[in-house]
Fold this protein.
Amino acid sequence: TSSSPSLYPPSAPTRVRIMILSAPAALGRATRMAVLLDEYRKRELEERIGLQVELINVSAVQEGVPVRNVIYYRPSFLRAALMLAAALPGAQTVQPMGEESLKKAGVDVEVWVGEDSP
């Protein structure tokens, strides 16, 4: 019946889906960061995190939205967020996703690139 609990526990994730968002003036840096992650650090990250790394989007937020260097993660993706922070240039803050971000399906980690990013 649909009301009975599943006999099997939910399966552990096999991948981490990453979205990179930036201030409009930092879109070039965000794009370089995406290339760094996808082309040069992907295999190393996958080995260290234990999950397949999937870069799903790189885009700029609206003008006027304040953007700091922050990596937001969905529950159970703290390790992935910390490994990303270590692999990226510059300093990032790592924080759990807020309620609005948690409503977005298909994103496990959001990397926000501020104008002051290297």
Remarks:
- The CA atoms of residues 53 and 86 lie 15 Å apart.
- The helical segments are 27-40, 42-49, 78-87, 99-102.
